[in-house]
Amino acid sequence: MRGNPDAHELIAPGNLDSVLELLAKEPSEWTPIAGGTEIMVAHAAGRLGAKKLVSLWGIDELRFIKEKEASITIGAGATFRDLRAHPGIGVKLPLLAMAASWIGCIANQSRATLGGNLVNGSPAADSSPALLVYDAEIELASVRGRRRIPYSAFHTGYKRNAMLPDELLFAVHLPLRFAEQRHYLRKVGTRRAMAISKVALAATAWLEDGLIREVRLGAASLAPFPMRLVETEVALLGRALNAESIQLACAALQKEAKPIDDIRSTGAYRKRVAINLLTEFLTALATEGQGR
Amino acid sequence: MSTFPAIRFNVNGEDREVRVAPMKRLLDVLREDLGLTGSKEGCGEGECGSCSVRMNGELVNSCLVPVLQAEGASVQTVEGLAAAGKMHPLQEAFLQCGGAQCGICTPGMLMAATQLLSVNAHPTMTEIREGLAGNLCRCTGFTRIFESVIAATAKNREERIEEPAHAR
Ligand SMILES: Cc1cc2nc3c(=O)[nH]c(=O)nc-3n(C[C@H](O)[C@H](O)[C@H](O)COP(=O)(O)OP(=O)(O)OC[C@H]3O[C@@H](n4cnc5c(N)ncnc54)[C@H](O)[C@@H]3O)c2cc1C
Ligand code: FES
Ligand code: FES
User: Fold this and answer.
1) A153 — contact with chain B (CB < 8 Å)?
2) Are both B131 and B152 inside the same structural domain?
3) Residue among A21, A50, A20 at smallest CA distance from A38
4) What is the pLDDT of residues A198-250, one digit of tens each?
5) Same structural domain for residues B74 and B101?
6) What angle do CA A102, A45, B48 make, to 5 degrees?
7) Is the ipTM of this complex over 0.95?
8) DSSP string for residues in A76-109
9) In A, which residues are within 8 Å of B131 by CB distance?
10) Do A106 and B112 touch (CB under 8 A)?
11) For residue A67, what are the domain limits?
12) Which ligand 3 atom sits closest to the C-alpha of B109?
């Protein structure tokens, strides 16, 4: 433990409005801490820059999961345990439930929040590929009110996002229109438990009369932030699924993916694996036939 | 320093109060301020599970909890497992099956296993492996730990059968 607890202020106002007022009064001064599984690791290593922290843990207004007929809304403070325990998410958003089960171990999932995962913005964040292919929307809150943006526009660079200094991530909205589409998610890491991914690919697709009507591809670790693979999607849209279109898609991915070299893997390996994952998904899609 | 406001929570059934920096880790508060040294520090970054405790019925790594976030919570540590001088069935099973060697990982293993059995009284081997996946052991090779948990669930079953109807 290299961090010094006395060097950081931490307060817990206990409700959303008080936190938002604090952020409005002194924007950029206060850093939110939810489950702390990122912040406390930085603190332990002595590299937590934030001097003033405001706790979101225990604020019920942020920790909820609401299911409606056409959507599920998840509060930023919901933990990955909450996500795994929710029957609607398991059935209607299986890729998100699967991703939640991968985030570290049980002790980590009891504390790690969806909001923390997204705001932390690691290129390898496990919840991101699933949210991208489910067309998630992000709801931000401030004293000025609420606003919604597509999740695909949330990350703007390495660990940068579209949130303003006085805003909090309030909730994630997930439309349920993908329930009948083909789903795919695979994470490649060093070992099964507790490993941050080297690459992950998620997909949803809808085939009709043998043609690809809709396809969404979301990737972790193929760019400085989690990203939709739009060019690869375009290469597939409207085409029949066969060896030729699979090859075209792989060529598009080869161009579109810009993974980095880091301690976990090399860019070249990540690109190769991503192409393998895409091929696996498309081949399964081709052989499993129609289906929405 | 007593310039800090009081932070109150319940540990193993007892109400406690500390006046420490709110960013102090729950692990350090347990060990240094409350004298409960059962929870260990292995990595200090959430990777090893030797600091695992239960907070409001959920397993958490106490090295990643700033103590202010434990305010009002009920915390269970390994010291709270034995009751009335009698070991918890999991502790007995670890003793009998060789589930502990050097013992550093044991408190965390016991808490993770307690958590698992609290939600799933008869876990399969796969479920045990998942429940303990965040707890590392450098000595036992894990097999004996998993066997201990299975032995404890068998004991659970016996005790439940032996329990007189009025006690249920
Ligand atoms: C042992 C271990 C294993 C892990 N394994 C994985 C893994 O497999 N996959 C994975 O993706 N991650 C993993 N993580 C990372 C981490 O657990 C997740 O990113 C987690 O979801 C972060 O959430 P939190 O609530 O703990 O974040 P915190 O640490 O509380 O906060 C993280 C960041 O988000 C900000 N923030 C939090 N909530 C909000 C909000 N509502 N509005 C605005 N800003 C907010 C904070 O200011 C901070 O910058 C692991 C971490 C550990 C310690
Ligand atoms: S000391 Fe807390 S997880 Fe290792
Ligand atoms: S018994 Fe030594 S680390 Fe597990």
Assistant:
1) no
2) yes
3) A50
4) 899 999 999 998 899 999 999 999 999 999 999 999 999 999 999 999 999 99
5) no
6) 40
7) no
8) TT-BHHHHHH-HHHHHH-HHHHHHHHHSS-HHHH
9) 106
10) yes
11) 60-175
12) 4
